[in-house]
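Next comes this protein:
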Amino acid sequence: MSWVEVRDTLVAMTPVAPSELATVPNTGVYAWWDLGGAIPWPADFPAVDRSRPLYVGLTEKGGLDERGVRMHLKTTRMSGLRRNLNALLHDELALFGGVTAHPKRKMSLTKPLELQLTSWMLDRLTVTWVVHPAPSSVESQIINDVLPPLNSDFAHRGTYWVHTDRLRREVHAAAVAAGQARGFKPKWSKTDRATSPDSNNGCESEDQCQRR
C-alpha cells in the first residue's frame, strides 16, 4: 500500500477502543483520536480539528499489540504520546509531584499516576490502524500530510509541534527542579548532557533525539 492509501484507510476507519490493539500482532501504522474533545488544549495552542488524528506512529520491530498495550498504555518513559499527554493533562490529573525527569527530556510517572493516565486514555481516546510490512516507508509522509498535534518528528510543516515541545520542556524542567529540591541530582552522561533540559543537541524536537 502507498502512503496515500494507508493515510486514507487510517482516516476512513471507525476508531475503536485502544484495548483492541492487543489483538493485532502485526507491524503497521496506527493513529490515536480524541473525537470527544477530551484534551484541555491551552489557550495559546493552535486550534485542533477533532477529525484530525491526535498522534500517528508505527511499529516495525514488534507488533501493534506490543506498541499499543505495553508502551502507549503502560509506560510514559517509553511513549512520546504519553509524555505529551502528561504535559497537557498535568493540571487536570494533578500529576504534580509524581513526575521523574530522565535524560533526553524523557519522563516517568509513579505507578498510581501511570495507571491514572492509562485509565484516562482508555476512557476517552480511540485508535485506528493499518497493518503494513514496512511502516517506516510511509509514516513520515502521512505525518507530514495530516500534521497530528501530538507528533513532533516529521510534523514541522505545521505549528503544533512547537507548542507541544514547549509544554514538554516545561514539565520536564519542573520535574528536574522538584527532584533537585528533594536532594536528587540527575546524573547526565556526556551523551545525555547534550540533551539535558538546557540543550537540544542540534535536534529540532525531542523525537529527533530519541524516536519514541
In short: The chain has a mean pLDDT of 83. The CA atoms of residues 72 and 81 lie 7 Å apart.
